[in-house]
Amino acid sequence: MSDYHIQLDRQDRLVHFLTVEGLTHRHLTEILDTAESLRGVAERRIKKLPTLHGKTVVNLFFEASTRTRTTFELAAKRLSADVLNLNIATSSAVKGESLLDTLRNIEAMQCDMFVVRHEQSGAAEFIARHVKPHIAVLNAGDGRHAHPTQAMLDVFTIRRHKPDFPNLSVAIVGDILHSRVARSLIHALNILGAGEIRVIAPRTLLPAQVETLGVHPCHDPRQGLRDVDVVVMLRLQRERMEGALLPSEAEFFQRYGLTEERLALAKPDAIVMHPAPINRGVEIDSRVADGPQSVILEQVTNGIAVRMAIMSITLGHHARSTEENA
Ligand code: NCD
Fold first, then answer.
1. What domain range is 183 assigned to?
2. Which of 50, 99, 143, 252 is 20 to 30 Å from the Cα of 240, by its Cα?
């Protein structure tokens, strides 16, 4: 059984959130609409809802993170959950016993949800298969495989600016090969029926047979950026590169970096996105990152409402599902 299935219960409800793959338009829309309704919480005098009052959420981070961990923490706190942050020194692999031992210890603290980031693809799924049935598991990024909450905050941000998905043209530029963000975003855009997805990168930074993901590959940003509505820039994931895949950062910027001139090829009202951390002068020019078309910081803000939505949906379904099976 793949991770498509383990995240849904018998009624097809989302009980873990491990990957966007295999979900339907209905699942994604439920998350987006719930996030939309939760967005206003941040504007209230008391930025809290009681939804997860009495629940304990554990952030289990085996890999570095700034935005993802903190926005998960804020999301949980705005839903009145108690939050435990565990930053565990990176291990080189999912070491069966030791990861399970960690899990058993945290389980013994009577937690209700694990938010997991791990350098190994499949780690969140592994945990979901081994935790006690009442615990919901959310994937906060596993290796190169998936980063589903990032994909949801990305499509949420796109939908707020460009709701007409069938006529939407999106360009994803940079290190597609090592990017879990790109993989999850491509799946989400395809499920939501986005008109066209282009991936723009040197050959060495595109996965083999990338077309099978439902995208058009392109090696020249002058063609790829033409008339798009959304430009998503990605960081060069040096920590995941083996050997020299690139000439130099300066050359990469010269050929692929998003400058004002290149952005002018896109539609005049195109938005510029980036999951961050951004590397100024490598994949993006500061004038674009800080410019009027950039929605990069809006993505961070939206990440809170989207994560609140995913937490309340999975935990709500989970509770119902475990009661039904009891
Ligand atoms: C991304 C990640 O960790 O996958 N960042 C994030 O979660 N906002 C992208 C990256 O590291 O480049």
1. 149-294
2. 99
Domain count, the chain: 2
Residue entry with tokens 């995208």:
215
- Pair (111, 156) in one structural domain: no
In a shared domain, residues 138 and 167: no
Q: Does residue 91 surpass a pLDDT of 60?
A: no
Residues 6+ positions from 24 with CB-CB distance below 8 Å? 191
Task: State whether 86 and 127 are in the same domain.
Answer: yes
pLDDT band at residue 4 using 50, 70 and 90 as cut-offs: low
Helix, strand, or coil here: 58? strand
Segment (H or E) for 262: helix 260-263
213 & 287 share domain: yes
**Mutational pocket test of ligand 1: of 138, 147, 185, the residue with most ligand atoms within 8 Å of the beta carbon:** 147
Q: What is the pTM of this model?
A: 0.95
Query: Where does the pLDDT of residue 2 fall: very low under 50, low under 70, confident under 90, or very high at 90 and above?
Result: low
> Over the stretch 215-239, which tens digit does the pLDDT of each residue have?
999 999 999 999 999 999 999 988 7
Query: Domain containing 208 — which CATH number?
Result: 3.40.50.1370
Name the residue among 117, 173, 126 with its Cα closest to residue 150. Answer: 117
Q: Is 180 in the pocket of ligand 1 (CB under 6 A)?
A: yes
